[in-house]
Amino acid sequence: MAAAWLASEKNRRKTVQSKRLKAVIVTHLFGCMVDMKRVLEICAENEIKVIEDCAQAHGASIEGKMAGSFGAAGCFSFYPTKNLGALGDGGAVITSSVALADRLRSLRQYGWKEKYHTAVLNGRNSRLDDIQASFLRVKLPLLKSWNLRRRKIAARYCELITSEQVTCPPIDSYGDACVAHLFVVRCVDRERLRNHLIARNIGCQIHYPVPDHLQEAWMDTSSNVNLPVTESLASQVLSLPCYPELEDDEIAFVIRAVNEH
Ligand SMILES: *Cc1c(COP(=O)(O)O)cnc(C)c1O
């Protein structure tokens, strides 16, 4: 969405004119990477830093370059439902800047530069728990095969969902740049499809029901933001089951249910 925003000539002018903009956070939403070349080009021209939100894109890559390695920093979540998940909360930031890495290390532990010596403001306790880290170490080598399985499931959905009411995401066109964190279809009568799936005990969710600019917390600052495409999509999107453990006959069951709705 950030890429779409920046790609519009009008928005870009607006963005550049408001000199206040220092950084852009791009989210590789649903596990499909944003066109980073384009984003970096635009941001470099205007001295805007890029931060990648990779919480849904562990292991995705563009021409062999991994998600999180394009911007000034890449942020990962290891929440249990992510492509690489701990058994509890966790996360990591990656960067190739030594200075930024030092600052982040301070920030994750109260802003300390050394024990009991606070050097950086706004620090917090954000340490990755040792126990969670050890689970992640065991799971990390499996990430590639899990991502492949997710992509295979997504490809099967794209190939075999033929309902004219349902639009599948263009997973194929992404190649390695998509790790199919979520498989999100669009459906004009989304509620009917959703009820149909729920009646068959098929888990499905809406990612996400409320766009950022309509969140209550942002109401004061985003009241003049107009994003009709985002709002229309929010009323149409539905996520189908997509995770490595899903069995072939379960995939077929979902596809049949979607096609007959
Ligand atoms: C899960 C997620 C987050 C939040 O991760 P936490 O570990 O809860 O901080 C942020 N951005 C995206 C895109 C996510 O999917």
Small molecules bound = pyridoxal-5'-phosphate
Give the uncertain stretches in residue-range form: none
Just name the CATH architecture of the largest domain. 3-Layer(aba) Sandwich
Strand content is 5-15%
Q: What is the molecular shape? A: globular
DSSP strand tally:
11
What does the main sheet amount to? 4 strands, mixed
Structural class: alpha+beta
Give the domain tally: 2
Helicity, in percent?
25-40%
SSE succession: HHEHEEEEEHEEHHEHEHHEH
Can you identify the CATH superfamily of the largest domain? Type I PLP-dependent aspartate aminotransferase-like (Major domain)
Overall pLDDT score: 94
Distance between the termini: 30 Å
Looking at CATH, which topology of the largest domain would you report?
Answer: Aspartate Aminotransferase, domain 2
Question: What characteristics describe this protein?
Answer:
261 residues, Aspartate Aminotransferase, domain 2, 4-stranded mixed beta sheet, 3-stranded antiparallel beta sheet, 10 helices, binds pyridoxal-5'-phosphate
